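It is worth pausing here to work through a concrete case rather than discussing structure prediction in the abstract. The textbook approach is simple: state the sequence, then state the predicted structure, then interpret. We follow exactly that order.
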Amino acid sequence: MNYLLRSSIGLLALAAASVAQAQDVVDPIGSILDQVDEDTAETLGAPPVPQPAPPQPAPAPAPATYPAPAPAAAVPYTPVPAPPAERPAVYQLPPAYTPPPPPPPRRPLLSAPVTVDEYDKTPEAPLNAVELGYESRLRSSFASAQGMQGPMDGAWMLRSRSGETLYSFMLVDKGGGTLEGAWRDPRRRGSPDASGFMVDIQRVGSQVSASFYPRAGGGVATVMLTPGGGGEWSGDLLEGRDRTAVTLRRN
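Step two, the predicted structure:
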């Protein structure tokens, strides 16, 4: 029995020695796990942190109570008086327009009308230097054109031997033997058939004959002329059965 006791004590001593040796060896992973387990245990075992209570909303003011309005008393309708009628203002007519006095005339006062045959007269105001130069060039051109015309070109007056003016002629002599012209009867001024064109003008040698109708629907009138001295022409005017001695002069 003593032997068994000694054997048991020896086993206990070996077991205690082996436990002590095992406790002397440090296990790092076990230490970390033991530390984590301790922190988790502390966290799970610690009481929860109290949260602050949310602020309570301010109490809403109670709605004001007003007494019910009393019904308004009926107001009788009073018509608005019409405004007094205004008298219209008296309309003042504008003053009568008085035109300004006309400017003094620049044109010379003529004592008699100027006809188209009076080339050297003009009803206008006196010409200035520019207008005088222009007129001079026109006259020069006209004179040059007239120099190319024949001797019968221009205005003529046919008179009887007693001096009565029978007809006025306006002839165009282009210098090639062909004559054209128009006539006018000064004894019938204002009549629509007191003027017209020559029907035929012929020049044979030194003699000239011209025919025209002095009246609408009437017979033909023919004048036959021969040159005389001083640029005049003399001859006869035949109107139906009437023959009149005439002279033709430049107007």
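Step three, interpretation. Strands lie at 154-160, 165-173, 179-184, 195-197, 200-204, 207-212, 221-227, 233-239, 242-250. Helices lie at 2-24, 28-45, 129-147.
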